[in-house]
Write the structure tokens for this entry.
Amino acid sequence: MTYFTYVSYPCVMSVRSFNSFSEARGHLKDVLDAAADGLPVVVHRKGTTAAVVDADRLRRLLNRLGPRAEVVGEAGGWSVFIPGIPVAADGATFDEAIGEMVDALREYAEDWQDRLLSAPNHRENWPLVQLISLSDDEQLGAWLVGSSV
């Protein structure tokens, strides 16, 4: 028995589409199973459409597509910054600078969620905030140095 409808979008295979929050909630296992399998799942609610995706898949995608940090050795220490993002960190050692940047990014993500998400110069940083929020410290540190975990 199928618990969801299939909707065809241009150039896309079938999408598991739930026409209300109540419908999706009633079939939450199906929603989560489909998302875990990498299948497209959408939930329509009050004129908006939300996509349900596997968090690890999303994190890995954002890791590949997101901005790149630059790490620079200078004046006997290290600096880390992301061009176009108002976050930077310094440390006496490379590892210390990366650790400080992880902390700074976590603070930025909190500030973004609290008040910066609507600011014109911050609203487009949504993908970065998602990456920060979906990553643990080790994953975030690996992303900063250009590797993946």
In short: The two ends are 38 Å apart (CA to CA).
